[in-house]
Design a protein that fits this description.
mainly alpha, two-stranded antiparallel ribbon, 16 helices, about 0% strand
Length: about 375
């Protein structure tokens, strides 16, 4: 693909999505909380950094992935069964590998932080492994792959949005439904073993709104002239600025209370709409000449997403027992995780045996699937 044909703006979004996940997970303490053990003033810098980084959530990865699938189907149409067989092989085989890897790797952090015994007990229970493989809860980031696969089951609906881009506005209805169904499911089934599965089902169903955004975006890319799209950017930037101000209010509340503001409704809308705004904003600027080096590194974004907890765990182990302020801890974790994760992903991608684990190269043969080459998200 030549530089003129390749959507470098989309590659930029892929990189933003991958790298931002490192920063996102680095801006919480080792227990995933907003540094509750520190003074209020010490939470200001890391939480403001998080507010910026959190504009690119995993939902941005979902939009990108659906957009790429629909784009690929434009040039190489396939049946529904063929598409899902390819996606199952492309996503679920690496997912199985990393699930087993993190199930074992977690023992290192568990031993260091003193919860090895309950974690080993967890590994001994078959029901927990259902959660690992069906929900991806073996590690805080692994939920993305089964969620994406579930979302892709609905891709014919997203192709309809490609034909009629106004359908993309359904993301608003879907997010409203998610908010209400989450409240009902959590309050009604709290403490029951099936709760995580119900929550994930609601998530996949309502995240179809993001799939419709991706379809609408492709339709706009194909149907609307670059000069017209460029005029939309100012409005999209304005909406993004308004949403970010709301995010700052949520950030203020987090700094003051040392608790994530899951119950702050305006913050909910700001968080979940920012990936849409970011994607559409870059699409409107897609006609510009983006640095070609972006396309060189974009294929590693999926691997960065998959591998970054390896080095975040290492950095948190190294920080254990230190009295560093939160922003210093965040800086250390990012400085360790990003270069080392990138180096690992590059090495794996160049390995003919293990390249598939980061979405590069040939996948191993698995009964029931055709032999396909995977080039990364």
């Amino acid at each position: 693909m030549t530089e003129q044909v390749r959507m470098v703006w989309l590659d930029a979004l892929r990189l933003i999505a991958g790298v931002s996940m490192v920063g996102l997970h680095a801006t919480a303490d080792s227990m995933g909380q907003p540094f509750a053990a520190f003074e209020t003033s010490e939470r200001i810098a890391p939480m403001l950094l998080r507010a910026v980084i959190y504009t690119a959530r995993t939902e941005l990865f979902l939009i990108i992935s659906v957009f790429l699938l629909l784009l690929a189907l434009e040039t190489r149409p396939k049946t529904y069964a063929a598409v899902m067989r390819i996606q199952a092989r492309r996503l679920l085989v690496p997912f199985a590998f990393w699930t087993l890897f993190y199930a074992a790797y977690n023992l290192i952090k568990a031993e260091t932080f003193g919860y090895a015994a309950p974690y080993i007990d967890q590994l001994s229970k078959p029901f927990e492994w259902f959660g690992f493989f069906l929900l991806g809860d073996v590690k805080y980031h692994m939920h993305f792959i089964p969620t994406l696969f579930g979302l892709l089951l609905f891709y014919p609906l997203f192709r309809l949005a490609q034909q009629f881009p106004m359908i993309g506005l359904m993301v608003l209805a879907c997010l409203a439904a998610k908010r209400e169904m989450d409240v009902f499911v959590w309050s009604t089934f709290w403490g029951q073993e099936g709760l995580p599965y119900l929550v994930r089902g609601v998530k996949i169903l309502t995240y179809c709104g993001y799939g419709m955004v991706a379809g609408a975006a492709l339709g706009i890319w194909q149907q609307v002239e670059p000069a017209v799209r460029r005029q939309w950017f100012v409005l999209i930037a304005f909406v993004g600025a308004m949403l970010f101000l709301i995010k700052l209010i949520a950030t203020y509340k987090t700094i003051e209370t040392a608790q994530w503001q899951h119950g702050f409704t305006p913050g909910y809308w700001a968080d979940f709409l920012m990936p849409v705004v970011l994607f559409m904003g870059c699409l409107c600027l897609g006609h510009l000449r983006w640095p070609s080096v972006i396309s060189k590194w974009a294929p590693y974004s999926f691997g960065i997403y998959l591998c970054h907890p390896i080095f975040l765990d290492v950095s948190e182990i190294l920080l254990r027992g230190t009295a560093w302020p939160p922003i210093a801890q965040v800086g250390f974790k990012i400085a360790v995780a990003i270069p080392l994760t990138t180096a690992l992903v590059v090495l794996l991608s160049r390995n003919s045996v293990l390249g598939w684990t980061v979405g590069m190269g040939h996948l191993p043969r698995v009964p029931g699937f055709n032999k396909l080459k995977v080039k990364g998200i």
